[in-house]
Amino acid sequence: MALADDIEFYGRAVADQTLTRAAAAQALARASGGGLTEYGAGMAIDQWKSVRAAYEQESRKAGDIWARCFEIVPPDWTVDQ
User: Fold this and answer.
1) Residue 2 and residue 14: Cα distance in Å, rounded?
2) Which of 3, 7, 31, 38 ranks highest by number of CB atoms within 10 Å?
3) Rounded to whole angstroms, what are the CA distances from 81 to 8, 33, 48, 78?
4) pTM of the model
């Protein structure tokens, strides 16, 4: 979870007052490779203590959705090869 690592890193830096929130948001947005805007990076930094748990929860939800997709197929369906 590289993005979660970066969010925690910059969030900690803001909490420790080694970086301003604005500088951290700019650096995180740049580090995300286009995944976050500066606004989104700032919001992520504000939530840095809970971001890893949130990502893990979303990842589990996505895995559950994929698992359910395979359960929907009736067992008598076959695939011709």
Assistant:
1) 18
2) 7
3) 48, 41, 49, 9
4) 0.70
